[in-house]
Amino acid sequence: MTPLFVALALAGQAAAAAPAPVPPAKAAATYRDRLPEDEVIYFVLPDRFDNADPANDRGGLSGGPLVTGFDPTHKGFYHGGDLKGLVRRLDYIQALGATALWVGPVFRNKPVQGAPGQESAGYHGYWITDFTRVDPHLGSDDDFRALVDAAHARGMKVYMDIIVNHTADVIRMRECEGQGACPYRSRADYPYQRRGGVAGPAINAGFAGDGDRSAANFARLTDPSYAYTPYVPAAERDVKVPAWLNDVTLYHNRGDSTYHGESATMGDFVGLDDLMTENPRVVAGMIDIFGGWIDRYGIDGFRIDTARHVNPAFWQAFVPAMQRRAAARGIAHFHIFGEVSDHEVRPAVLAEWTHTGGLPAVLDFSFRQAVADTVAGTRGTDAFAALFDGDALYAGGVATGRTLPTFTGNHDDGRFATFVRRAFPKAGEAEVLDRVKLSNAMLLALRGVPTIYSGDEQGFSGDGGDQDAREDMFASRVASYNDNRLVGSDRTTATASFATDGALFRQIAQLARIRRATPALRRGSTVLRYRQDTPGLLAVSRIDPATRQEVLLVFNTATAPVTRQVEVEAASRRFTALAGPCAATATAPASVTVTLPPLGYAICAATPE
């Protein structure tokens, strides 16, 4: 048994101690060399993380919540978290085991939007008016620079959350005023060369349609009133930055998306102004905007919001341009991953965008669904066969599969504990905790780049998706957050949630430490050893490509114990338990006995003879 395996085994037995942060001097010299699959990502919405500077709570605006957007008692408004708060909590994030920070959008947002009585604020960052500066609710450009520099000094990467699909809701349609909705109008029924439908007067003479993406062709698209009559209220005519974003002809202006068919890339996403990303002016403008953030701050990657709602040809131009900008800055492994939201175990839906759009990676919604179906549901563990088989469909194949950021819950769909409690309403708190722990073990040990949503490590359980899953890490004043039962904790969100002694924090920290020290868990190939069509055993081997060392991962999704023989490599004769119960030796060449308690798991590393 090597010293490394001894150390890891002891670490698994002493999981109560949180790991020490990586020494900054040592980490800073190597973080650029890490591959995307080497990371453990921590995702945070800055407004909901920590409030280090109350002076910026109202974003420099004066007035009530409907002007400033600030109301810490309302789940849909700004609460005061900022970039300085992120900086002062980097010790906490690093103690959890995260090596990369995915920061929710930091761009200047429209403070408040929505129909009267339905207003909410841009605290989440997805209603951008100025793509070039930090939202003053979160701090300043210098504060963002300080965050990136502080993270890099610790050897941590920083991924920015960016949006290309849309801006804030500024453009109005005269035909929809007072209706509350603006139905999508298709290109067939409302062609570009007619005003208001096929029988309308001729406009935009010579425009050959959006399939011809030349500048000369789009120069002929001068009248945007083909489907609706768009206009911008006088008070907001110059609100967007850069200034070219104020030109209404650079938007689709076809009404609200149905998220299917043509409207998926041309309709307004919940009313937000949908950019005409077929237009070369928009392509060049977005390349300039986001290339500038790379140039100025040296960030390490982009998470792309609503990627599937942008035409694939845009990404074919944008992605290589960003990779070139990063390479010129000395950023060798700039990680770009798009949001292609889907709620089935259907890798083909995700993989399509790595081909048609050329996205290097996508958020692995299929992984999330497989874990939800099996651990927060009753589907058999054969769901993972469909997941792993689908890796061959990605551009780059299984190597790309290892770079997909995996997750079990998020700020849109909800937290994993929410799914568990919905699926098993009669489960006791011990079972809920065991199911959440099992999901964490899958997240940190299986292929992909584990992505932890802030608060999951504190047992946040949420009430649902969207605003109901965006609890404050600092002491919250939102009643619907503070009445939630946390998983594995007697605390509530009414007090600050940065403790490192909780059951889930300690478990995640232990698993992250094991992952960082075990190359097979980061870069290894995946061999599916056992699955079944009912709840029960899932067995997977990860094989280190350099040493051929095998690490056997076993998970029990059933509420009864399981004992079974599992195939392993013939050379894998002895095993060290990195986590959970592992047999010390193989039962016979190429076979080992696996015994797990209900909802248990184990990480078993084959050791040299």
Automatic annotation (TrEMBL):
Protein origin, superkingdom: Bacteria
GO terms of biological process kind: carbohydrate metabolic process
Signal peptide as annotated in the record: 1-16
SUPFAM superfamilies: (Trans)glycosidases
Domain Glycosyl hydrolase family 13 catalytic: from-to ranges: 43-515
Cross-referenced Pfam families: Alpha-amylase (PF00128)
Keyword flag Signal: yes
Keywords assigned: Signal
Protein name, as recorded: Alpha-amylase
